[in-house]
Q: What sequence folds into this?
């Protein structure tokens, strides 16, 4: 698929790290020399200097945490996952939260999240009084246990 990019804040286009990469890294578009320190429990919105225009409304850009930052530093997305609708044209910013025990520093160009594109379908909702029966039925969270 083709995606038009609008780059601001002097940032470069994201690139796939390997031919098998599903996502591109998003980098912090802070000012040169600017340091953002996230204390434990603190949140911040970090600009990327990137706006997009996918060629089709049948795709969504999904922003996800970087696994290394999450596992090693406790840094994740403050909203769990980011959804960039196909018709959004503003700058993409990443909400980060520090779940770790130590302050975390972000500098210009640091890889802070990743972005992938996924196909989407829109639903036609049909209001009904009954739903199809399944083996699971209305079994909720954790109904199958741990083992």
A:
């Amino acid at each position: 698929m083709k995606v038009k990019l609008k780059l601001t804040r002097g940032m470069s286009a994201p690139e796939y790290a390997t031919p098998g990469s599903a996502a591109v890294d998003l980098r912090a578009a802070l000012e040169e020399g600017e340091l953002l320190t996230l204390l434990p429990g603190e949140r911040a919105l970090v600009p990327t200097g990137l706006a997009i225009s996918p060629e089709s409304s049948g795709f969504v850009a999904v922003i996800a945490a970087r696994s290394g930052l999450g596992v090693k530093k406790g840094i994740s997305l403050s909203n769990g996952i980011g959804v960039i609708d196909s018709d959004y044209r503003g700058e993409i910013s990443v909400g980060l939260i520090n779940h770790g025990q130590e302050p975390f520093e972000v500098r210009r160009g640091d890889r802070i999240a990743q972005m992938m594109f996924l196909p989407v379908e829109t639903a036609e909702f049909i209001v009904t009084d009954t739903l199809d029966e399944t083996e699971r039925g209305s079994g909720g969270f954790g109904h199958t246990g741990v083992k």
About this structure: The chain has a mean pLDDT of 95. Residues 3-119 form a domain with the Deoxyuridine 5'-Triphosphate Nucleotidohydrolase; Chain A fold (CATH 2.70.40.10). The radius of gyration is 19 Å.
